[in-house]
Amino acid sequence: MSIFKIVLLAVMLMASSFSSADRIKDFTDVAGVRSNKLIGFGLVVGLQGTGDGKDLPITAQALKTTLSGLGVSVDGPVSDFDLGDKLAALAAQNATKELKVDNVASVMVTAELPPFAKPGQRIDINVSAIGVAESLRGGTLIMTQLRGVDGETYALAQGPLGITGVSAEGAGSSVQVGIPTSARIPNGATVERLVPTPFDKSEHIVLNIHEADFSTAYALTEVVNKAFGDGTAQALDSVSVAIQAPKDLSQRVAFLSMIENLDVELGEAPARVVINSRTGTAVINRNVRVTAVAVTHGSISVRISATNEVSQPNPFSEGQTVGVQNAEVTISEEANPMFLFQPGVDLREIVDAVNQVGASPSSLIAILEALKSSGSLRAELVVI
Predict the structure, then answer these.
(1) Three-class SS string for the chain?
(2) Bigger pLDDT: 90 or 52?
(3) Distance between CA atoms of 158 and 143, rounded to whole angstroms?
(4) Most buried residue among 54, 66, 133, 300 by CB atoms closer than 10 A?
């Protein structure tokens, strides 16, 4: 048995001995191993009169260019005459305007190229109308080049669209379920170009921690050095840890597999309170503390009631009947008790105190924001 296989077995046994720790693969990413965004402009054909029509000139222009590339002339007999440049351009423009594109729609095609994707593999694509097309149902995307940020073509997309949305209208009424102008094609694009990565060439493998934390970076470094020897891993900062890796590619893959399955005892998360003001949601982690403070929270209610009456004139008088509106305004304030936080109270005591006064989610958010403003909340307050 080789030394490499013995180390592999020892590391696997060490990883299995931990049960409450987190695996390295669950809170880190390998630097350079990432997906890439792709985008392209295409045409969807075969629609039932729900395309762009004449309201979007680029659809007709794109269709004309596509047909010209296939050897189909859409300019009619104009090309048979020896016309000047301006006259020829005008004739071509008029011919394009007359091109019927009610069954064609201009779309943007987007995709995500996974890391290490090889030519010939297939990826999913999303198709979205960019013009005035009413629906893409029943359409087929014709060949579309998907380009990366560098302008190079990395995939080719084509195929029938899968749409879950539907819309219908008639006699002045309409109904719509889902979005009929957006579609998805599973395995709708074929990868044509390999994205180079430094994984097989770099001297070190760099692991990036999802959330920057010096304690986590230190703990990860210690676990790797304990398993493979001192100097194997070195923390670069609170996010990145550089690990020396074998030069042989097959051994490098097996080595990274061992690294990913090591367990690390992570430190406590930073004290944080997350508030969603739109939904009234407040999330408090267990490390939140509050210093000594007294809190009361009440609400003032204003109630206005109106009574409509009619004032009748006396008999045989020259008066007129008029409407009279009587309004009654009352103001009430709830007598909520004040509760006291002792120094260093934990999450359970905070929740119990707020529940005792019957605070609603919006009231809880107001209390937490006031505690932060007063300096009594020992935590980061995040509002989303």
Answers:
(1) CCHHHHHHHHHHHHHHCCCCCEEHHHHEEECCCCCEEEEEEEEEECCCCCCCHHHCHHHHHHHHHHHHHCCCCCCHHHHHCCCCHHHHHHHHHHHHHCCCCCCEEEEEEEEEECCCCCCCCEEEEEEEECCCCCCCCCCEEEEEEEECCCCCEEEEEEEECECCCEEEEECCEEEEECCCCEEEEEEEEEECCCCCCHHHCCCEEEEEECCCCHHHHHHHHHHHHHHHCCCCEEECCCCEEEEECCCCHHHHHHHHHHHHCCEECCCCCCCEEEEECCCCEEEECCCCEECCEEECCCCEEEEEEEEEEEECCCCCCCCCCEEEEEEEEEEEECCCCCEEECCCECHHHHHHHHHHCCCCHHHHHHHHHHHHHHCCEECEEEEC
(2) 52
(3) 5
(4) 133
Instruction: With beta carbons less than 8 A apart as the criterion, state whether 289 and 275 touch.
Output: no
Looking at beta carbons, which pairs linking 2-5 to residues 24 or more positions away fall under 8 Å? 4/246, 4/251, 4/254
- CATH second-level architecture of 3-33+198-264? Alpha-Beta Complex (3.90)
Domain boundaries, the chain: 3-33+198-264, 36-191, 272-383
If pLDDT is split at 50, 70 and 90, which confidence band does 100 have?
confident
> Higher model confidence: residue 368 or residue 44?
44
Q: At what angle do helices 85-97 and 57-69 cross, to 10 degrees?
A: 110
What is the C-alpha to C-alpha distance for residues 252 and 199, in angstroms, rounded to an integer?
9
Q: What pLDDT does 106 receive?
A: 94
Q: Whole-prediction pTM value?
A: 0.66
Long-range own/partner contacts, residues 338-342 (CB < 8 A, 24 or more apart): 338/294, 338/295, 338/296, 339/294, 339/295, 339/296, 340/292, 340/293, 340/294, 340/295, 341/290, 341/291, 341/292, 341/293, 341/294, 341/295, 341/376, 342/292
The answer to whether the beta carbons of residues 270 and 212 sit under 8 Å apart is no
Which is more confidently placed, 258 or 370?
A: 258
Phi, psi of 170 (to 5 degrees): 180, 140
The overall longest dimension of the chain from CA atoms, in Å, is 122
Looking at residue 166, its pLDDT comes to 60
* Token pair 């097996």: residue: 254
